[in-house]
Design brief:
By secondary structure, the chain is an alpha/beta fold. The protein has 2 domains: 27-221, HUPs (Rossmann fold); 225-273. Helix content is 55%, strand content 6%. The protein is built from 12 helices and 4 strands; from the N terminus they run H-H-E-H-E-H-E-H-H-E-H-H-H-H-H-H. It has a 4-stranded parallel β-sheet, with helices on both faces. Helix 4 links the parallel strand 2 (76-80) and strand 3 (104-107). Helix 1 (2-23) crosses helix 10 and helix 2 crosses helix 3.
């Protein structure tokens, strides 16, 4: 029994160390690195500023706060692009954050645009198999709107994806994945939350459950294999520490089948993280 307790204690220590490695970032240093990166990207592109699509969630809130810190509020524009089913609280959170940062805010509801697609393509929205294609369509409509304004103002589109989403392909190709640069794609979701709080993003946003809202009632946990608190240690162990699935399963107390499923998500979404293949690469 004592031996079992000793093994259990060692296991808990390893879990705590693993989580500490993931979230234990130097926030001041990270902010300085990211803001310098944003400044360099904008300068090299000869752009006048950046656009950020605001959802009221933590990722877009952190990105817009970083962009304002890097460029000033006069060079950052936020776009709110709601659907009919977008929660009012999300819109309110985005509005209040934009107000506190004193940035220009543009409203561009997408419901009529999406409805036009549905009507023109004769889509039966009651069919279950249409849910994901329509969800991705909404993300791509938002990308088009962002680039319209980017072209109009000579701005760059700042991406809001993080490392947790990137590694498992949890983004829409040519939707929220269609951007000019990714300022927080090296940070896991747990790190994003910590950095957002450090920069003064309200806790109600920083720790809000992730919700892409690409269909009514849409939650990230509907589609990702684990909540981010459990997913991030697994991803860190797999891709940063490069441990075997068996080792990760034991270290994180996660079933091997789930670990293997996460690896399949990573492998199957590889095309999303690469430039389209060309014949000369074969």
């Amino acid at each position: 029994m004592i031996g079992n307790l000793s093994l259990y204690g060692t296991f808990i220590v390893k879990i705590c160390m693993l989580k500490e490695k993931i979230i234990g970032i130097d926030c001041e240093k990270e902010v300085n690195l990211i803001t310098s990166f944003i400044q360099r990207i904008v300068e090299e592109a000869g752009a006048k500023g950046v656009l950020v699509g605001l959802s009221g969630g933590v990722d877009s809130s952190l990105v817009v706060a970083l962009c304002v810190k890097a460029l000033g509020n006069d060079k950052v524009i936020g776009l709110i692009m709601p659907e009919d089913f977008t929660p009012k609280k999300d819109i309110q959170d985005a509005e209040e954050l934009a107000g506190s940062l004193r940035i220009k805010l543009i409203y561009a509801p997408i419901n009529t645009i999406v409805s036009t697609f549905i009507k023109s393509l004769n889509i039966d929205t009651k069919e279950p198999y249409q849910k994901v294609p329509l969800a991705n369509l909404r993300a791509r409509v938002r990308m088009c709107i962002l680039y319209y304004y980017a072209n109009l103002y000579n701005y760059l589109v700042a991406g809001t994806g993080d490392k947790s989403e990137d590694l498992i392909g949890y983004f829409t190709k040519y939707g929220d994945g269609g951007v000019d640069f990714l300022p927080i794609a090296h940070l896991y979701k747990t790190q994003v939350r910590m950095l957002a709080e450090y920069l003064g993003v309200p806790k109600s946003i920083a720790y809000k459950p992730s919700s892409p809202q690409l269909y009514p009632g849409h939650k990230a946990t509907d589609e990702i294999p684990l909540d981010y608190e459990q997913l991030d240690p697994v991803l860190y162990a797999l891709f940063d520490l490069k441990l075997s699935p068996e080792e990760v399963s034991k270290l994180t107390n996660t079933s091997l089948s789930l670990i293997e499923g996460i690896l399949r998500l990573h492998e199957n979404s590889e095309h999303k993280r690469r430039y389209p293949k060309m014949l000369k690469e074969w």
